[in-house]
Design goal:
The complex is a heterodimer of chains A (about 450) and B (about 300). Helix content of chain A is about 55%, strand content about 10%. Chain A has three domains: about 80 residues, SRP54, nucleotide-binding domain (Four Helix Bundle (Hemerythrin (Met), subunit A)), CATH 1.20.120.140; about 200 residues, P-loop containing nucleotide triphosphate hydrolases (Rossmann fold, 3-Layer(aba) Sandwich); about 130 residues, 434 Repressor (Amino-terminal Domain). Chain A has an eight-stranded mixed sheet with strand order 3-2-4-1-5-6-7-8, with helices on both faces. The longest helix of chain A is centred in the C-terminal third of the chain and has 27 residues. By secondary structure, chain A is of the alpha/beta class. Chain B is an alpha/beta fold and about 300 residues long. Helices cover about 50% and strands about 15% of the residues of chain B. Chain B contains twelve helices and eight strands. Chain B has an eight-stranded mixed sheet with strand order 3-2-4-1-5-6-7-8, sandwiched between helices. In chain B, helix 2 packs antiparallel against helix 3, helix 4 crosses helix 5 and helix 5 packs antiparallel against helix 12. Classes of the chains: A alpha/beta (about 450), B alpha/beta (about 300). Chains A and B meet through helix 2, helix 7 and helix 10 of A and helix 3, helix 7 and helix 10 of B.
């Protein structure tokens, strides 16, 4: 998970403080030295680290902590506050032009992930009811235009391209012309990757900017970038004036220090983060939630939002009724699995649960394949079997095992788990009845 | 050869400027060697992506020298630092093999420049008069195959490809059969970028190597991990994990023509003892150079 390493290190350091009833200056200094090392190893910019540590230390040895009843906790709160501060306080959204079309220009170094991110962003905007068109301005990298076409195909978005012989600025102008006729209200411009010190190519970007006045200029940054991230962001910002940053490859095990530094140095907000290889894996960036995640405090808000976004209300109500009346069947179980899959991979979800940070799960692989196996088993059952699991005798179980490519033991395990879950759910449901009515319950189990 | 050296030096120009300018300015502001001086050096090395651990190691070595040789002049410290880096970078590095047939596999995370490096490496062997075959085993990224086709045309090398989504191991298999029948000297394999924490993708990589083991045991094998010079400390983790899936024989360091200081290779060499073999210093087809530790140290710390 993103930030895993940093999170572990910080947690380890702060754990020592957590229980302390009394803190002296030496304890804080010692802890801050370790925090400093952890941040540096996470590629947080050196200057940013220095500032951060001195701010936290100032606050931690001041009144705020010494007079509190739980000084250890208080220090953690300060670190959390400052981390959030560092990444920007609130979520920043893409700004849409009051006079369409909105023009979003993507810039960055080679290999940051601009083309892929263009596709992901298009999908994201489509979900918000926009009609984006991707503009192919990377005329240098071989097959970049083809790649944009493929990516656009995956998210069913339009593409505008004039091949690789036309100047990018002319492509952009023609694209705007085209959009006014085709009714596309957002243009996403994929520019070629370039070094921030390549004057010629930077001037090309400036020329595009001056000619088409983009609504948003987004810098796409690989979250694995080291100390140089800040130089890159500053150069692009000075030349073009950025409006925001999109972090990519945050699903690696990078400690993501670049994310922390860029906001601090350029004061430009991180608007999105790429969290995986699927086109839907682009998430709005919530600094406060990310800070909690780093400190291992979980991110329940994102979890709930994900659930709300992907789970059908009506189905949830039906399910609730079924659970109460104990009519929950394998059919519903399958339904649940599919809904859960829509929310993303299990390991991603686990990251968001408080107290379930990756460190604690070390050695325990969260296996998405397991779900596929369970699905196969249930799908190998007949409709009748799914509705009335009690009729599953030995020969039926054998058939299911063969049909799903598993063993009878696997099938038995699933059936047993299912029965237990059903019982448990009944108990929960009964408990819930006494509680406030109408409160939406998440259709989770386990 | 002089030209080669100049190019590398130019490529490293930014690198050198950044580190030495700052070191020099630090050194000139100090009259004696004390803890503050080492603190400043520590900062410079860390901001060059050398990493906390390796920085400490380097500085410890220098501190010891300073003490033993009773050095008082802060300016002598730069020479020590240079020697120390040179020592780390050239420690048990065997020369690049020129046994043929050879198979070279490029691996690495997404966006480091694998496909481009395959093209550039193919060009190098082609220029040396070798018969080259490119295997397009990145079947995952959109248009990766097309990108490589452009390179194969530029270089004038044969290419073995399937369609997008095909099994990469099958392409390697085909490439090996083709190489045998066409008497090819070098196969250069592109692979899909993968984040090293994606287990199934790392398994896919192992499968590729199983195929090579079985079908082409007679070929000399090089496995290059491609690293982006702008990458920070995560590169060490990348190198560690890729090392588990493959016997990495060298590193290709790309994008060294930016302002990134590429200090990470010092850390990787020091911690994992994997030598840097090639460096990418520009976008042109011949902007991939042999890595020479002496040149590297000289370019970073000029006389």
């Amino acid at each position: 998970m993103a930030f895993e390493g940093l999170a572990n290190k910080l947690q380890e350091t702060l754990k020592k403080l957590r229980g302390s009833g009394k803190l002296n200056e030496k304890d804080v200094k010692e802890a801050m030295r370790e925090v400093k090392m952890a941040l540096l190893e996470a590629d947080v910019n050196f200057k940013v680290v220095k500032d951060f540590v001195s701010r936290v230390t100032d606050r931690a040895v001041g009144h705020e902590v010494m007079e509190s009843l739980t000084p250890g906790q208080q220090v953690i709160k300060i670190v959390n506050d400052e981390l959030t501060q560092l990444m920007g306080n609130t979520q920043s959204k893409i700004v849409f032009s009051s006079k369409p079309p909105t023009i979003i220009m993507m810039v960055g170094l080679q290999g940051a992930g601009k083309t892929t991110t263009c596709g992901k962003l298009a999908l994201n905007l489509k979900k918000q009811g926009k009609k984006p068109i991707l503009v192919a301005c990377d005329i240098y990298r071989p097959a970049a235009i083809k790649q944009l076409h493929v990516v656009a195909g995956q998210v069913e978005a339009d593409v505008f391209s004039l091949g690789d012989k036309t100047k990018p600025v002319d492509i952009c102008k023609a694209a705007i012309e085209h959009a006014s006729k085709s009714g596309n209200d957002v243009l996403i411009i994929d520019t070629a990757g370039r070094l921030h010190i390549n004057e010629e190519l930077m001037d090309e970007l400036l020329e595009i900017k001056d000619n088409i006045r983009p609504t948003e200029i987004m810098l796409v940054v690989d979250s694995m970038t080291g100390q140089d991230a800040v130089n890159v962001a500053e150069s692009f910002n000075q030349k073009l004036g950025l409006d925001g940053v999109i972090l990519t490859k945050l699903d690696g095990d990078t400690r993501g220090g670049a994310a922390l530094s860029i906001k601090a140095v350029t004061s430009k907000p991180i608007k999105y983060a790429g969290m995986g290889e699927k086109m839907s894996d682009l998430e709005p960036f919530h600094p406060d939630r990310m800070a909690s995640r780093i400190l291992g405090m979980g991110d329940v808000l994102s979890l709930i939002e994900k659930a709300q976004l992907n789970i059908d209300d009506k189905k949830a109500m039906e399910l609730e009724k079924k659970i109460r009346t104990q009519q929950f069947s394998f059919e519903d179980f399958l339904d649940q699995l599919q809904q859960m899959k829509k929310m993303g991979s299990l390991s991603q979800l686990v990251d968001m649960i408080p107290g379930m940070n990756a460190g604690k799960l070390k050695g325990m692989e969260v296996d998405d394949k397991e779900i596929v196996r369970v699905e196969a088993i249930i799908k190998s059952m007949t409709k009748k079997e799914r509705l009335e699991p009690s009729i599953l005798n030995g020969s039926r179980r054998k058939r299911i095992a063969l049909g799903s490519g598993t063993t009878i033991q696997d099938v038995n395990k699933i059936i047993k788990n299912f029965e237990q879950t059903r019982k448990m759910m009944k108990q929960f449901a009964d408990m819930g009845k006494d509680m406030k009515k109408g409160k939406k319950r998440l259709p989770f189990f386990r | 050869m002089a030209d080669l050296f100049k190019k590398l030096k130019d490529g490293l120009f930014k690198t050198r400027n950044n580190i030495t300018d700052r070191i020099n300015s630090v050194l000139s502001s100090f009259k004696t060697i004390d803890e503050d001086l080492f603190d400043e050096l520590e900062e410079i090395l860390i901001t060059s992506d050398v990493g906390v651990e390796t920085t400490m190691k380097l500085l410890e070595g220098i501190k010891k020298e300073v003490k033993e040789q009773k050095i008082n002049d802060p300016k002598a410290v730069i020479e020590l630092l240079k020697q120390e880096v040179l020592r780390v970078m050239s420690k048990d590095v065997a020369p690049v093999s020129n046994e043929y047939p050879q198979i070279i596999v490029l691996i690495g995370v997404n966006g480091v420049g694998k496909t481009t490096s395959v093209g550039k490496i193919a060009n190098r062997y082609k220029q040396a008069g070798k018969k080259v075959l490119i295997a397009a085993a990145d079947t995952f990224r959109a248009a990766a195959i097309e990108q490589l086709e452009v390179w194969s045309n530029r270089v004038g090398a044969d290419i073995i490809k399937h369609q997008e989504g095909a099994d990469p191991a099958a392409i390697i298999f085909d490439a090996i059969s083709a190489a045998k029948s066409r008497k090819t000297d070098v196969i250069i394999c592109d692979t899909a970028g993968r984040l090293h924490n994606k287990k199934n993708l790392m398994e896919e990589l192992k499968k590729i190597f199983r195929i090579i083991d079985r079908e082409y045991p007679e070929a000399h094998r090089e496995v290059y991990l491609v690293l982006d010079a702008t990458t920070g400390q995560n590169a060490i983790i990348q190198a560690k994990v890729f090392k588990e899936a493959a016997d990495i024989t060298g590193i290709v360091l790309t994008k060294l023509d930016g302002t990134a200081k590429g200090g990470i290779v010092i850390a990787i060499k020091s911690e994992l003892n994997v030598p840097v073999r090639l460096v990418g210093v520009g976008e042109k087809i011949d902007d991939l150079q042999d890595f020479d530790p002496v040149d590297f140290a000289n370019a970073i710390f000029p006389e």
